[in-house]
Amino acid sequence: MEIVNPLLANALGVLKQGSTEIAEKEFTKAVSACLTAFGETDIVTARTLAHLARVCRLQGKVDVAIQMYERILRIHEALPEPLNSDHAVALGELAAIREEGGSQGSADILRRRADVIMVELAARAQTAESSEDGSNSDSEEEEEEEEEEEEEGDGNTVEQQHKCDVR
Asked: 98-107 — which CB contacts under 8 Å span 24+ positions?
């Protein structure tokens, strides 16, 4: 990060000044540093590529931006925990580009994927918040009661019952 942070700060500063051509060069340097420091499938690499993709899009280099967003999505999908807000943002950015290009169906699919990720993240955050409070939600309590009844009831294990539910 020691090498990457100054490069990112410089690139962002140049972009704020409005020079997308110089910003593109600076973000390209930052991406190169990320690849060296963290590798192809790291979240920092994906985030830095996202900055570069936005600059390319601002410059009208839509095809290049699409390739970068697709690369970013591959990185996110390769992460141990692929569901994160950056993944959803990349899907949304690519959806906007597809929509601008007239591919509404493709854009809708990408947006739905982004929505699914955000809903899942919100559910996880809510679950984590509940766990931190030390309280069980109503659905958790009901699930525990059902499991107790099943164990006492018909002699089937919970695993056997779940197998039936899946079919």
From this structure: 100/62, 101/62
CA gap 129, 23 in Å, rounded: 40
As averages over each run of 10 residues, the pLDDT of the chain (167 residues) reads 81 90 94 93 93 95 96 92 88 95 94 94 88 61 55 41 32
Q: How far is CA 35 from CA 43, 55, 68, in A?
A: 11, 19, 14
Longest dimension (CA), the chain: 71
155: alpha, beta or left, given left = phi > 0 and alpha = psi -120 to 50? left
Q: Which structural domain range is residue 114 located in?
A: 3-128
Whether residue 152 lies inside any domain: the answer is: no
Check which CATH number belongs to the domain holding 36 and give it: 1.25.40.10
**What distance in Å separates the CA atoms of residue 41 and residue 98, rounded to the nearest whole number?**
24
Domain total of the chain: 1
Q: Helices 43-58 and 4-16 sit at what angle, rounded to 10 degrees? A: 20
- Is 89:50 a contact under the CB 8 Å cutoff? yes
